[in-house]
Specification:
34% helix; three-stranded mixed beta sheet; globular; alpha+beta; 6 helices; three-stranded antiparallel beta sheet; 135 residues
């Protein structure tokens, strides 16, 4: 139970989401116990950083994308940064959301009713607006 969760977090800048932990076989109680014991730190609602993982700018983008899940994508300056456009190297976390959730502090959001086919792609494990939509 929970096999591979640390490997997953290692690929995601030390981060993981509650849905990912549950999909890996952890119960709500096991998640709560890891947070209470200090093994995991809550970064955003339902997003955790494994103890000892460095806090990085790319990790902040990763955390925002994990929080958004399937109802959003990194967009605007954050998407440009994830694509590697040098002018956007320190862009803050920014999302386009398909639902009306209020974003957590430090995360800017925009809303959309839908994404057209091809406007969102999976890039290095994250949902991000396509190059064309980003530009």
């Amino acid at each position: 139970m929970g096999d591979g969760i640390l490997e997953l977090a290692a690929r995601q800048h030390g981060l993981l989401s509650r849905p990912q932990a549950v999909a890996a076989g952890l119960s709500e109680h096991q998640i709560h116990r890891r947070v209470s014991a200090g093994h995991w730190e809550r970064v955003l609602p339902n997003v955790y950083r494994v103890h000892g993982a460095a806090r990085t700018w790319l990790g902040e983008l990763q955390a925002a994308a994990l929080w958004a899940g399937a109802n959003g994508a990194l967009s605007h300056g954050a998407a440009a940064a994830w694509w590697g456009f040098s002018r956007f190297e320190s862009a803050p976390p920014e999302l386009t959301l398909l639902d009306r959730r209020k974003p957590p502090p430090r995360v800017k959001s925009h809303s959309a009713d839908a994404f057209a086919p091809g406007e969102v792609v999976l890039l290095r494990g994250l949902r991000v607006t396509s190059r064309l939509r980003t530009l």
